[in-house]
UniProtKB/TrEMBL annotation:
Entries under InterPro entries matching the protein: Thioredoxin-like_sf
Keywords, comma-separated and alphabetical: Signal
Annotated signal sequence range: 1-31
Source species: Nelumbo nucifera (Sacred lotus)
Protein name: Uncharacterized protein LOC104604287
SUPFAM superfamilies tied to this protein: Thioredoxin-like
Taxonomic superkingdom: Eukaryota
């Protein structure tokens, strides 16, 4: 009799583990099935990819200070190398930044309404991101923060688009698009922001900004190797 209880406990534990495994399996299968119709991310300045283009992918969180700090030097490199670089930014909302998902979603909303200002809005988030930090919005409802984000975004997009921006926050498609961005980052092993890939390969030191000199040190040898046919 004395053994009865622990055994029961163990079998319950096993059932629980099996349940967790099955749930994880179902989640994974679900993630694998949902291939988006379009490649995730926002292309910088509508540039094109050619044979010798160096492809940079950046996973950035609009309310992450390190993502913010990483943007000016990367932008400087984009200006310096011109069409040799092709950038795709994927929003990657970190779960410990309370408004990361909504601000990332706002980027998808903006990109749908007018793709030519997506990067301008991203820069605005970086410039004023402290408005949306955890402590600043701790007492606010999600609805009021989304409203605040909508008004913030309308400053760039045009105040006449405020109602379209706000309805974007109740459009399931923009919610799903933001989830795709997140899941895509997870599928590539992104664990923090900023996180960069160059020609498909991850750069070391994820989570910290790379300065302009750092970008030159990464890109110059690639261009040199290309011109030597390697
Ligand atoms: C998108 O934004 C740009 C820059 O503000 C503006 O010139 C253009 O007219 C806008 N396009 C649309 C479709 O609203
Ligand atoms: C949040 O509410 C509490 C209690 O009302 C108040 O003490 C605190 O200062 C508020 N914080 C912010 C950031 O508004």
């Amino acid at each position: 009799m004395g053994l009865e209880k622990p055994r029961q406990g163990i079998s319950m534990l096993i059932s629980a583990s099996v349940f967790v495994c099955i749930s994880l399996l179902l989640c994974t299968v679900d993630a694998q099935l949902s291939i988006p119709a379009k490649y995730d991310g926002f292309v910088y300045k509508d540039r094109r990819v050619h044979d010798d283009t160096i492809v940079i992918e950046a996973f950035l969180d609009p309310v992450c200070p390190d993502s913010r700090d990483s943007w000016p030097p990367l932008k400087q490199a984009l200006e310096y190398y011109g069409p040799r670089l092709w950038l795709l930014v994927h929003p990657f909302p970190l779960p410990y930044h309370d408004n990361a998902f909504s601000t990332s979603r706002a980027l998808h909303i903006v990109n749908k309404l007018n793709a030519s200002v997506t990067y301008q809005v991203l820069e605005m988030f970086f410039k004023h991101q402290e408005i949306f930090y955890n402590r600043e919005t701790y007492n606010k409802s999600k609805q009021s923060v989304d409203h605040l984000i909508g008004k913030f975004v309308a400053e760039v997009l045009g105040k006449d688009l405020l109602s379209e921006i706000e309805s974007g926050f109740s459009d399931r498609k923009t919610d799903l698009a933001t989830r795709v961005s997140f899941k895509y980052g997870c599928s590539r092993g992104v664990t923090g922001t900023p996180f960069f890939f160059v020609n498909g390969f991850p750069l070391p030191d994820p989570g910290s900004a790379i300065d302009y000199k750092g970008w030159k040190n990464i890109i110059d040898p690639l261009i040199g190797a290309q011109s030597q046919g390697r």
